Amino acid sequence: MGMLQEQVTPLPAGEREPAVAGKKRALFRLRRSWQLYVLMALPFLYLIIFKYIPMYGAQIAFRDYIVTKGIWGSNWVGLKHFERFVHSYDFWRITKNTLLLSLYNLVASFPFPILLALGLNYMRNGIFKKSVQMVTYAPHFISVVVMIGIVKELLDPRSGIVNQVISWFGFAPIDFLSKPGLFKTIYVTTDIWQHIGFNCIIFIAALSSIDPAQHEAAVMDGASKLQRMFHVDLPGIMPIAVILLILNTGHVLDVGFEKVLLLQNPLNLKTGEIIDTYVYKVGLASQVANYSYSTAINLFKSVINLILLISVNKIAQRTQHGSLW
Amino acid sequence: METAFKNESLPDRIFTVVNYVLITILFLLILYPLIYVVSSSFSSSQAVVSGEVLLWPVNPTLEGYRAVFQYKLVWSGFVNSVIYTALGTLVNVFMTVLAAYPLSRKDFFGKNVFMVLFMFTTMFTGGLIPTYLLVKDLGMLNSIWAMILPGALTVWNVIITRTYFQMTIPDELLEAAQLDGCDDFRFVWKMVLPVSGPIIAVIALYYGAANWNSYFNALIYLKDQDMYPLQLVLKDILISNDVDTTVFSGDPADAARREALRVLLKYSLIVVTTVPLLIVYPFVQKYFVKGVMIGSLKG
Q1: In chain A, N or C terminus with fewer CB closer than 10 Å?
Q2: Which architecture, in CATH terms, is B72-226?
Q3: What is the pLDDT of residues B67-82, one digit of tens each?
Q4: Are A7 and B113 in contact (CB under 8 A)?
Q5: Any CB–CB contact under 8 A between B283 and chain A?
Q6: Out of the domains of life, which is the source (chain B) (predicted)?
Q7: Where are the domains of chain B?
């Protein structure tokens, strides 16, 4: 214990920043906080093993991976797999699906949490407001599997409630999930249903931090609630909205992969196949798993995503809404 | 916002009314599917199949739940899920605190290097196949380790926790403790953890919900059906429609009834698997909200 004490006891105020050259000072700081490194050891090990080793392993995209030869023994083939993907019939179809689905989701689901937050902000703090919040947050915690299970039951052509209603009006039932044209809409609508409440929390927080004096001043000037909403509340939450939008744009290619996989069926695959599900099918779910080809497709996506994220962040810095990191 | 309705000007009254109407519609739209699922699960299978259930249960029975309890895979799935979730969340929280505390310290030499290493993994990953091959090479396929270790921590939660530490633990406290001869290990154990109840609740709940709800890791890493977590069992039943109806009754003449039970079983299953989360949820709702707020602060 004696030695420990010596290391952690801070120096007297005047000498706390010893005037020694950088190297010596670095060593001093290293020694003084060795316990912090011990604490960091396990997480760091995790990061290296489960995050960085797979990044290193992604080189099989440039090799012809053969299980018996391992990553190292397999031959280099350069960009063969990337070329194969770019020239394949599936390339445009799944790239287009991925982009369209995520853009649609980005644009359509973005305004709803903001609108809900604005609306809730003008409600009295009563039981009804509390219930609205509780019920709208709840679907966020339903698993994807259950979520899609519910969707399937509700939209079922025979027993689903939606088709019951449709048939009351004398129309023929629609098999929603087998219509390629409806895939994206079902995905986006259910996404809004599931996350609108939870995503609005952050805007409610932003609204509550707006200086009340601004509202009072607006009232003095005779502003109605609607005018206050447009001229006080909306500008007040704009910075956080922009940051979130930017953040989402950076991950534009990461559509909810698990959800898409569950929503797919052979009939809606034309519009429902995205890069991530394709990677899974080529790499793991297929009879003849092609690890290298699958990794190449994934790498293609990751690189584009990274470029997007960095450029979007650059734009954010320019527009002075603050950078993300 | 607190002004009484009757004192409001006309435009404000219209605004208030429209606002309440719109929010009520949204409220009902979100609530209805939930009620419908619960009501269906308590209705007779015939009523569900013929679409008689609209709002309240029709011919209330517990048929569906009986079917759920007869289904052995649901039981083993439930037990597995509890184990994976409990153990996984424990590891998650432990690892997250370990990483977050040093990162919260201004005087942690090399902090920025670690931050960059952490953040980079949120932007770029090796991808599905290299990760799968790693898990396979480590011999973790078809074992409980594959359910717990690959997702041992989430960078986002590390950041939230770190920010919380920075906000709640003043430098003076650390300095005072150090003057008293307290080292970092003891400081974490005696000072940091006791004041971190709220943040640990938040991340435990985030991780817990994620663990309970995850199915994809199980889908790719597990082979034995008796190791499946509940979500994977559910996937087979709800999505792939893969139900072994013979467990309900061995009598082939019962085909129609079994078919109806198949539909009913789904609704009851949805309720049974979601209820654990929804029971916990109202009690911890405020913590979730807190977590979002902390997460939204830039640090």
Answers
A1: N
A2: Orthogonal Bundle (1.10)
A3: 888 888 888 999 999 9
A4: no
A5: no
A6: Bacteria
A7: 2-69+243-297, 72-226
